[in-house]
TrEMBL record:
GO terms for molecular function: methyltransferase activity. GO terms for biological process: methylation. It catalyses: L-methionyl-[protein] + S-adenosyl-L-methionine = S-methyl-L-methionyl-[protein] + S-adenosyl-L-homocysteine. Residues 1-38 are annotated as: Disordered. It is found in: Nucleus. Residues 17-27 have a biased composition (Polar residues). It comes from Polytolypa hystricis (strain UAMH7299). Gene3D superfamilies: Vaccinia Virus protein VP39 (3.40.50.150). Belongs to the methyltransferase superfamily. LaeA methyltransferase family. This is Velvet complex subunit laeA. Keywords: Methyltransferase, Nucleus, S-adenosyl-L-methionine, Transcription, Transcription regulation, Transferase.
Amino acid sequence: MDLSIVTGAAPREAHRSNGSPENPSSGTGRGNSYYEEYPSHQENGRLYHGFRRTMYPYPCDELEQNRLDIFHKVFSVARFDRLHYAPLPNTLPSNQSNDSSAKQPIDPGPRILDLGCGTGIWAIDMARLYPNAYVLGIDLSPIQPQNRPDNCDFQAPRDFESPWLLGEDSWDLIHLQMGCGSVASWPNLYRKVFQHLRPGTGYFEQVEIDLEPRPDRYMAPDQPLSQWYRSLKDATEIGGKPIAFNRNILYMLREAGFEDITHQIVGLPLNPWPTDKHEKEVGKWYNLAYSESAHTLLLGPLSRVNNTPLEEIDALAKAAKSQAYNKHVEAYNLLHIIMARKPGPAPSEPQGIPHR
């Protein structure tokens, strides 16, 4: 299914130069060398990346790329088409980029870093929105498109929990979306984010979903949605990268040195049960996102960590999806949007750190 029309993503063939689901192309121009060094592998009928293959239990195939792009659409709808809330310096909106009447020289635009960029859709959208910005996305899997804006780069494979070497004190915005389930040590990650932001004006923005089901009415713990979440939560905790939303994030950001920390929460209905028009639209998209995630998120963690038979995984995912489809089940998840600023006097351009 080509979801590019409805999600706004680049057509999927743009992400692949070789046209094979076993060999997706690299957005970094590495070609086949990546797959010779880190061959992808099939597991339970899904394709997984080869770089540090035990670190990330989720696939990288066509289905997964579609799923990630659907979540990008969910966030866009839930946030009224806002790509970010954190302030950015010296931005030149796309509708002014071709204004030849402008007499003033353009200041160097912001430097934006996207951690765990996935298909690169957020990074590309930001590069198009701010044509004078430099946007860099990093990810474990090179599934990003080669046809991207000139002011957007990708580095993959790259593990954002390893040393960065990306220029400390040089980034205006560092963005992380859906990092839960991919991080072993949040304090270590936040320290690195803090070190690399520009003092005084650099912001970190994190967008996460708390997958614990919250019903408007009582939901028994033996209900499929509750069982699904509990199974996923337990398996990822054992695997060392919990997918549960960490409720100590604000404390950890303060400990890392951040100031001006804000936390917004948005409800994500599991189906279009709300009466409010906007919430109903969010529910439509989130129902699609959840239906694409119910089996995908369970498969790796439960089969690898718990050795759960595939038949049990299939049955649990099917039951959870069925309950999510039921409009009489008025349940929702929570979308968390967290921003934090690095304090300190704003320095001049760091020596040795080019704009791009």
